[in-house]
Amino acid sequence: MVGQIKENVGDPVQSTGQRIINIKKTEKMTENLLFDFTVDKAAKKVFITREFDAELSLVWDAFTKAEILDQWVAPKPWTSKTKFMDFKVGGRRFYAMVSPEGLERWAIQKYTSISPKTNFKLFNSFADKDENPELPGSDWDYTFSEQNGKTKVNIIIYNESLARMEKMIEMGFTEGFKASMKNLESLLASRK
CB of 65 within 8 A of CB of 80? Predict the structure, then answer.
């Protein structure tokens, strides 16, 4: 990995009597490609910006087609298994992250808005193997743009509860998401 991680701990924010700190990490994954990952506990949001050295249509497909998503979205050694995916407004993706030992962590994504090759939004919740959601969940907002053959993806994740957000982070979301982005970067490079 090229570059280094910078950690900037911002000013403390008071919220419901708790001391909450906004954390921002910026990492250069490869030369001249941005990866910014910011956790704002006070707002219950995660902000992610990631650039890829690939055309927008290829990056869009990587986020919106199950057969491509399953190749990169799980951090190794885990794998992703999509049971079904219907990428349309009101459609859903039901999938599992599968550990090397066969443990399955299921989730449901419901697509709430789609503007082709520009933006899509979804509601994500953990679930059991029978598609019963474990609420609360989180709203994900993906925005795509291209400039000079590079595609930027901005993701905002809003969690309904601070407890859910903290559980996500405790389960390794930050490290797992970074590993997934590295997987996607490698997959896109192989498809050029």
Answer: no
